[in-house]
UniProtKB/TrEMBL annotation, chain A:
Annotated Gly residues bias: 20-40
Family: Belongs to the Aux/IAA family.
Subcellular location: Nucleus
InterPro entries in alphabetical order: AUX/IAA_dom, AUX_IAA, PB1-like
Subunit structure of this chain's protein: Homodimers and heterodimers.
Protein known as: Auxin-responsive protein
From TrEMBL, chain B:
GO cellular component: nucleus; SCF ubiquitin ligase complex
Signal sequence, start to end: none
Functional pathway: Protein modification; protein ubiquitination
Residue ranges constituting the COI1 F-box domain according to the UniProt record: 4-42
Pfam families noted in UniProt: F-box_5 (PF18511), Transp_inhibit (PF18791)
Keywords assigned by UniProt, alphabetized: Auxin signaling pathway, Developmental protein, Nucleus, Ubl conjugation pathway
Coiled-coil blocks: none
Protein's name according to its UniProt entry: Leucine-rich repeat cysteine-containing subtype
A GO biological-process term: SCF-dependent proteasomal ubiquitin-dependent protein catabolic process
Compartments where found: Nucleus
Top-level taxon of the source organism: Eukaryota
Length: 246, 577
């Protein structure tokens, strides 16, 4: 069973598409083009076919879902047709349940990503469900379900899919979609930031995932050039707990 | 020519309550039209963009109750971007300006701001009832204005809204003189609640019949609240998080036993299942039970509770009840009219053998002769089961089946589910609402067009093969009012076959289908009484295109009839043709 700790490795794992808990290696190119675009690198569209065992908290089940499969219920936008209010409640409960399971299994782990009492509190009252995401240059805000994600990796991938998805039916593949967007490592034109409970805007990725989801109020995909003033949270305990990218 | 004086006719009209009937009588003659419109108290507007506030007030100057619906239904599933529209402020401003004696406002899927709530609270001295369903854009500050300023407030009912909780003291804002509350529902509020203020409020509200608490109200507070309000008919329990100590539990039991009027129970947003037995004494009185948010309760606990609910007419539950549990429902709840079974595991990850299947559905249909409305989420279905359900229950008015995996066939025969749904529409002659799912070809739409004569609302997702499918429906279902389609291969040929048809409907939604920009333009060209909206989310694509490609497929199309032309409040990514 994948434990809290192993999923946590994904937080510092910045290679989109090469996440440890995800099935495959480099995904095939399934890009669709849009206009030339203001960005230098286009996000690559990854679908369920790239990752036979993708995108869930229960990556442990991945072994039983080998091979490509039709889009799973959870990966299609707006499906299953459950109201967002109800969805939030459901995923909160699932997080609570999974958190409890992980807690029991994870007792033997020495280096947890967060102290046990924070974990308990998180699992007792997971407040977060859908939060708003805005991207610089894009008029429409979207919403993302934080509790459906287990790591920064997952989240980054979802955001990439959301904001770089192009209109259906536009003219086929254009040139390179070689590089993923890399929202988390500062190497692309955009960075992912969030507003926390105190109203401060921070760079995403510095704190352990579980702490992040309890304090995040909303997300913003910001142009790197504008993000210079942002606080990077260099608190010592977190530094110690950061993992090296594999 | 009238044989009676106007006052007499008006008195007769008072007995005609349904808005559809009133609409009909207003068409009889000019005189009746005038009498009807001046005496109309309740107005229902299914699409806030079909008409504007000025015309509404012009026609019905004496209205007291207004119901408005904003965003299309698929907005519930995040398919409609924020700021699309549905703003209530202009309506409240207009009503205030014209000094309409508004007493009741019911909104669904609208954008409500604190400013609107403040204006509402100050503009109508007799304002009594505010019901907000699936709305957003406001905070608890807005609620505070309502609490503070609406001296005659009887009902504040907040259902599944997105409310920014400022953790303020909105409950404290009800003045001490406020004793008129009949209904208070704040279950959707996520933040802390001032429990002391709530207790005081409940204690001074002798007419309180409906109380629905949010997560933050714990068990001991619940016991006190119920003791103050034994006259409650409808209760939404908040949070039952921890196993209570025996003393608290005893207090709760005592309080519950006194609530002999309790008929409806909901909530249990966080619950420790061992608390449920406290409710056993009143189960025999319940006609409505909503445990669809209570993910913590296991099937067997649910079963014990339900076995006592012999008078149940409405049940909302999670699929953790399992087929076994549904069999118990079928055996126990002979008065059941409406059943909703929601998925407890949306990611479809768990190998959940306890979840419901076609077996549970058939059992319910066989055991509950009065069943007329169903919403059923499941992972598998068969034609045989649907045929059996149709035979058992020809009285369905609403039939919504959602098989979680798109395109999933009959799991035994691997065929499409055309025959199963076909049996449903053929048997259920009164069917007004239908949602289909699973693997479906054009054939199912042929059946729907042929048999579903009363159908008013149809939801289609991942179904059909060609334009013929949609054409069968448009040609056949003469009473269709709302048609919503996603991810299905219907294109321009179907869209354009009978443009005049859309003026007989409230709205059409098509997303991720095959309709193109050119098709939508042609549709809009000769239809001044339709608003054809294209929602294009990727702004950058739009900006880049110098020449429009009419062959480009439209991501989201929403069209609706209107008498007031293009709306002026659409955001830039909504293009109205």
């Amino acid at each position: 069973m994948i434990t809290e700790l192993e999923m946590g490795k994904g937080e510092s794992e910045l290679e989109l598409g090469l996440g440890l808990s995800l099935g495959g290696g480099t995904a095939a190119k399934i890009g669709k083009s849009g206009g030339g675009g203001a960005w230098g690198e286009r996000g690559r569209l990854l679908t369920a076919k790239d990752f036979p065992s993708v995108g869930s908290k229960r990556a442990a089940d991945s072994a039983s879902h080998a091979g490509s499969s039709p889009p799973r219920s959870s990966q299609v936008v707006g499906w299953p047709p459950i109201g967002s209010h109800r969805m939030n409640s459901l995923v909160n409960n699932q997080a609570t349940k999974s958190g409890r399971e992980e807690e029991e299994a994870g007792k033997k782990k020495v280096k947890d990503d967060e102290p046990k009492d924070v974990t308990k509190k998180v699992n007792g009252k997971v407040p977060v469900g859908f939060i708003k995401v805005n991207m610089d240059g894009v008029a429409i805000g979207r919403k993302v379900d934080l509790n459906a994600h287990s790591s920064y990796d997952n989240l980054s991938q979802t955001l990439e899919d959301m904001f770089f998805r192009t209109n259906p039916g536009t003219i086929g593949l254009t040139s390179q979609f070689s590089k993923p967007l890399r929202l988390l490592d500062g190497s692309s034109e955009f960075v992912l930031t969030y507003e926390d409970k105190e109203g401060d805007w921070m760079l995403v990725g510095d704190v352990p995932w579980r702490m992040f989801i309890t304090s995040v109020k909303r997300l913003r995909v910001m142009k790197t050039s504008e993000a210079n003033g942002l606080a990077a949270r260099n608190q010592e305990p977190n530094e110690r707990q950061r993992k090296q990218p594999v | 020519m009238n044989y009676f004086p106007d006052e007499v006719i008006e008195h007769v009209f008072d007995f005609v309550v349904s808005h559809r009937d009133r609409n009909s009588i207003s068409l009889v003659c000019k005189s009746w039209h005038k009498i009807e419109r001046l005496s109309r108290k309740e107005v229902f507007i299914g699409n806030c963009y079909a008409i504007n506030p000025e015309r509404l007030i012009g026609r019905f100057p004496c209205l007291k109750s207004l119901t408005l619906k904003g965003k299309p239904h698929f907005a519930d599933f995040n398919l409609v971007p924020h700021e699309w529209g549905g703003f209530v402020l202009p309506w409240i401003e207009a009503l205030a300006r014209s000094r309409v004696g508004l007493e009741e406002l019911r909104l669904k899927r609208m954008v409500v701001t604190d400013e609107s709530l403040e204006l509402l609270s100050r503009s109508f001295a007799n304002f009594k009832s505010l019901v907000l369903v699936s709305c957003e854009g406001f905070t608890t500050d807005g609620l505070a204005s309502i609490a503070a300023n609406c001296r005659q407030l009887r009902e504040l009912d907040l259902q599944e809204n997105e409310i920014d909780d400022h953790r303020g003291q909105w409950l404290n804002c009800f003045p001490d003189s406020c004793t008129t509350l009949i209904s208070l529902n704040f279950a959707c509020l996520k933040g802390e609640t001032n429990v002391a203020a709530l207790e005081r409020l409940v204690a001074r509200s002798p007419n309180l019949k409906s109380l629905k608490l949010n997560r933050a109200v714990p068990l001991d507070a619940l016991a006190r609240l119920m003791s103050c309000a034994p006259q409650l008919v409808d209760l939404g329990v908040g949070s039952y998080e921890n196993e209570p100590d025996p003393e608290s539990f005893a207090k709760l039991m005592t309080a519950i036993e006194k609530c002999m009027s309790l008929r409806s129970l909901s909530g249990f947003l966080e619950v420790a299942p061992l608390c449920l037995p406290a409710f056993y004494p009143i189960c025999q009185n319940l006609i409505s039970l909503n445990l669809s948010y209570a993910a913590e309760i296991q099937g067997n606990h649910l079963i014990k509770l339900i076995q006592l609910c012999k008078r149940l007419q409405r049940l909302w539950i999670l699929d953790s009840i399992g087929d076994k549990g549904l069999a118990v429902v079928a055996a126990t709840c002979k008065e059941l009219q409406e059943l909703r079974v929601f998925p407890s595991d949306v990611h479809g990850e768990e190998d959940n053998n306890a979840a419901v299947t076609e077996v549970g559905l058939v059992a319910i249909s066989a055991g509950c002769p009065k069943l007329h409305s169903i919403l059923y989420f499941c992972k598998q279905m068969t034609n045989a089961a649907l045929i059996a359900v149709a035979k058992n229950c020809p009285n369905f008015i609403r039939f919504r089946l959602c098989i979680l995996e798109p395109h999933k066939p009959d799991h035994i025969t691997s065929q499409s589910l055309d025959e199963g749904f076909g049996a449903i529409v053929q048997a259920c002659k009164g069917l007004r609402r239908l949602s289909v799912s699973g693997l479906l070809t054009d054939q199912v739409f042929l059946y729907i067009g042929m048999y579903a004569e009363q159908l008013e609302m149809l939801s289609i997702a991942f179904a059909g093969d060609t334009d013929k499918g949609m054409l069968y429906v448009l040609n056949g279902c003469k009473k269709m009012r709302k048609l919503e389609i996603r991810d299905s291969p219907f294109g321009n040929a179907a869209l354009l076959a009978d443009v005049g048809r859309y003026e007989t409907m409230r709205s059409l939604w098509m997303s991720s289908c095959e309709v193109t920009l050119g098709g939508c333009k042609r549709l809009a060209q000769n239809s001044p009484r339709l608003n054809v909206e294209i929602i294009n989310e990727n702004e950058n694509n739009r900006m880049e295109q110098n020449e429009e490609d009419e062959r480009e497929k439209v991501d989201k199309l929403y069209l609706y009839r209107t008498v007031v032309g293009t709306r002026k409040d659409a955001p830039p990514y909504v293009r109205i043709l």
